[in-house]
Amino acid sequence: MIDIFGFSFSIEWAMQLLVTAFLAVLFLQSGFDKLFDWSGNIEYLTEHFSKSTLSPFVVPMLSVITVLEVAAGIACGYGFIELLLWESTEWALWGTLLAGINVLFLFAGQRINKDYVGAAVLVNYFLLIVAGLYILT
C-alpha cells in the first residue's frame, strides 16, 4: 500500500486504472475518428490495401474494426469508473479482451497486406493489453 496525502492505494490498483484509462482513450479516440471521418478512412484504407487480397473487403473490415474499437473503448471507460468507485475489474477485463481481439484483427490485416512496419507497431499495444489482462485478473 502507498499513502499519498492520506489516500491509501495499492500499486496493483493504480496499474489497473492506468491501463484501463489508456485503452479507453486509445480505442474511443480511434473508433470515433473512424465514425466522424468515415469517407477519409475508406479512402485511406482502399489505397493502403489496393495491392492486397483484402482490397474488396475494406468496408466490412472497417465496420468490424470500428465497432470493436468503440465497444472496447466504452467497456474500458466504464471499467475505469467501476475500478475507481468499486474496485471491480469486470468491465475493465471485458474491455481489455475486446481491445486484444481488435489488435489481433489489425495485426492480421497488416501482415496479410505485408505492411510489416505497421504490424510491428501493434506489438507494443498487444503487450500492454496482455499485461493489462494479467493485472486485471
- The proportion of residues forming helix, as a percent range, comes to over 70%
- The Rg value, from CA coordinates, equals 17 Å
Major sheet strand order:
1-2
The amount of beta strand, in percent, is under 5%
- Between the first and last Cα atoms, what is the distance in angstroms? 19 Å
Number of helical stretches of at least 4 residues: 5
From the helix content, strand content and strand pairing, which structural class follows?
Answer: mainly alpha
User: Would you report the number of β strands?
Assistant: 2
Write down the secondary-structure element order: EEHHHHH
Query: How would you describe the shape?
Result: elongated
Q: What's the domain count?
A: 1
Mean pLDDT comes to: 96
Largest sheet, strands/sense/barrel: 2 strands, antiparallel
State the low-pLDDT regions, or none: none
Structural account:
By secondary structure, the chain is mostly helical. The protein is elongated and about 60 Å long. It has a two-stranded antiparallel ribbon. The longest helix is centred in the middle third of the chain and has 29 residues, at 58-86. It starts with a strand and ends with a helix. Helix content is 80%, strand content 4%. The protein is built from five helices and two strands; from the N terminus they run ββααααα. It has one domain.
